[in-house]
Amino acid sequence: MKIGNFDLETDGTYIIAELSANHGGKISIAKETIKAAKEIGANAIKLQTYTADTLTLDSDKEDFIIKGGTLWDDRKLYDLYKEAYLPWEWHKELFEYAREIDIDIFSSPFDKTAVDFLETLNPSAYKIASFEITDYELIRYTASKGRPIIISTGIATLEEIKDAVNICREVGNDDIILLKCTSSYPAPIEDANLIMISDIAEKFGVISGFSDHTLGSLAPIVAVTLGAKVIEKHFILDKSIGGADAEFSLDKDEFKQMVGAVRDAEKLIGTIDYSMTDKKKKSRQFSRSLYVAKDIKKGEVFSEENIRSVRPGYGMHPKYLNDILGKMSDKDYRFGDRFEK
Question: What one-character-per-residue DSSP string does 271-327 give?
Answer without folding.
Answer: ----S--HHHHHHGGGS-EEEE-S-B-TTPBP-TTTEEEESSSSSB-GGGHHHHTTP
